[in-house]
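Handout, section B. The chain below has 420 residues.
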Amino acid sequence: MQSLSDSAQATPHAVPAPKAQPATAAQGAVRGSAAYRRITLALFCSGFATFSLLYCVQPLLPAFAREFHVGAAGASLALSLSTALLALSIALAGIVSERYGRKELMLASMALAACCNLLAAVAPNWHMLLAARALEGFALGGVPAVAMAYLAEEIDPSGLGFSMGLYVGGNAFGGMMGRVAMSLMAESFGWRGAMLAIGIFDLALAAAFMLLLPASRNFVRNGAMKLGAHFALWKSHLAHSRLPLVFCIGALAMGIFATSYNYAGFRLMGAPFSLSATATGMIFSAYLFGIVSSSWAGALADRFGRAPLVAAGIAISCAGLFLTCMPVLALVILGIVLLTIGFFTTHSAASSWVGRMATTGKGHAASLYLLAYYLGGSVLGSVGGWFWEHSGWNAVAGFMLLQVMLAGWLAWKLWRPGRA
């Protein structure tokens, strides 16, 4: 299949008359146009639905432990199984989208995942609930794996950063509401009623997504593409001079973020702060700053470039990291806010960078980035627990500082003269 970039390069030589060139139309929706607004709103909805469904069980883990008579580690399977299968399905979703299309796969993923959440809400036993959550995580992989590729293909490059930032903002808002709102609804309606409510709401978002999102204009289905061709595209992206560095930055950024959120609650509930579990749970409200910073970072990336924004996000994370080590509660909370802003700034700029760097196989490049991203959060976030158990928060902070330094070094390699 001839790539769009190849076609765009060949057109000026084959058709010298400006009016006959299709290249202008192939650039995608321009910021400010009706198509651009529909695309960004639809992708915001998809990001919200994906991460509200994924993380809605996190505040429910104690309720699961009580009702199904499982330990804390067993209860955590309701989230960890979904996350693990999400990472696995991301790699496969790119292949499926080449055959069936970007919009079609994202819509099917949202609808199926919402239905699985409804099944989990009425599951009669623990094993049925885990099976529904596992299938839900696998279904959800179709959205993040394809959304970045769709934006890179359908949005004009001048507005790509802003639209990617809004999509990441939808992720942040969904992640926050899946945690904070779910805990509030569960208090009033029970965990089953709360899960039913979010499942129904996200089904409605899937319907809105179907109506809002325009069909792909710059993507051609390739049902005849063999498995070897997919591996060749992945191999070419891994052999790229800069893309693997962006993949690693995404993994480290998510690792820092996951580690901080996993263990900040333990720090705040312990001495010298001794906050209640309810007050500590409000830490997830810091996601509001992620929504704002991701959109802000996307717009600035369009203006100043991706490298400066990635570097800025890493620097902000570093500042927040040091503040979390202070013995003053206000400074610790400010540190968590800065870590959140730094993470979403880095992720927003890095994710849009992947679409700009990959000239062909954008879906495959996006799937590799997200695979690294989720594996980084899973592995590094878990390893951080060892540091907490053995030496407390300062050891956790030291572990995160190593990740920040490595991410900063990778950003410098991308930004240095001749490679920016």
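Note. DSSP finds 18 helices and no strands in the chain. Compare this with the example in section A.
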